[in-house]
Amino acid sequence: MNKPGEIIVNSPSQDEHYYKVLGKAAHAASAEEGVSAIQIAAWAISQIPLGRLSPSTTANIGKISGGTATNIVPELAEIWGEVRSFQDEELEKQSRLMEDSFQKAAAKFGGSVEGKKERSFTGFQLSHKDSVVQLAQNAVHKVGLRSQLVSSGGGSDANVFNQLGIPSVNLGVGMEKPHTKEEFLAARDLVAAAEIALALCTGEAR
Predict the structure, then answer these.
(1) Per-residue pLDDT tens digits for 146-176
(2) Domains of the chain by range and CATH?
(3) Backbone angles phi, psi at 99, to 5 degrees
(4) What is the three-state SS of the chain?
(5) pLDDT of 178-200, one tens digit each?
(6) In this predicted structure, what is the pLDDT of residue 2?
(7) Quick one: CA torsion of 158, 163, 167, 169, rounded to 10 degrees?
(8) Which of 25, 149, 160, 166 meets the CB 3.0–4.6 Å disulfide criterion with 75?
(9) Which of 152, 12, 154, 151 shows the shortest CA–CA distance to 91?
(10) CA gap 166, 21 in Å, rounded
(11) What is the reported pLDDT for 205?
């Protein structure tokens, strides 16, 4: 991902979604007497585009929980997901689609859904004219690297600071394959990132 020298000046907004799907419990051998919350959730998810939706937008269902035993029609399923985008219109459109899909699924199978959507973080965009960006560039150049202004699909404290009116950027550290079992960081990148941080902390970048 972002190498030392890369300065992240653009980040998306993210909405987190939670759905509590309610069905009706019954013995599996009398399935017609029950309403499967898992079936409702599965149908809803099957109607939702996921992954990379556009250059600006992604959507993901990240966690599913439900059921108690194989011989019981499940009366409860819980689903957690997210949408993130650099475009507010696309973010809102995808979030509405997800909400509508769960409501339609509940109506189709005779259950109900309690949904909750929360803004996890708000996007930001800075430019080379911002003093914090110039400071970061100076630090990168001080340690002999080439600076580059880039976008990132991730969220961080910088999103919160910028929303509060405190201009902030993220600095690349060289992490590779993040959030996977193969995540790693090369020693040379760790050293370079530390040198950039030192230049900032000691005032050498000013």
Answers:
(1) 999 999 999 999 999 999 999 999 999 988 8
(2) 6-11+124-201 (1.10.150), 14-120 (3.30.70.360)
(3) -60, -45
(4) CCCCCEEEEEECEEEEEEEEEECECEEHHHHHHCECHHHHHHHHHHCCCCEECCCCEEEEEEEEEECCCCCEECCEEEEEEEEEECCHHHHHHHHHHHHHHHHHHHHHHCCEEEEEEEEEECCEECCCCCHHHHHHHHHHHHCCCCCEEEECCCCCHHHHHHHCCCCCCEECCCEECCCCCCCEECHHHHHHHHHHHHHHHCCCCC
(5) 889 999 999 999 999 999 999 99
(6) 83
(7) 20
(8) 25
(9) 12
(10) 40
(11) 67
What residues in the chain have per-residue pLDDT under 50? none
Residue 181 CB-half CA count within 13 A = 0
Per-residue model confidence (pLDDT) at position 16: 98
β-pairing verdict for 13-22 and 26-27 = unpaired
- Rounded Cα–Cα distance for residues 102 and 91 (Å): 17
Distance in angstroms (rounded) separating the CA atoms of residues 69 and 72: 6
Contact (CB, 8 A) for 146 and 206: no
Instruction: Take residue 76 and report the two structure tokens written for it.
Output: 């409860």
User: First CA to last CA across the chain, in angstroms?
Assistant: 27
How far is residue 190 from each of residues 4, 84, 155, 171, measured CA to CA in Å? 8, 28, 21, 12
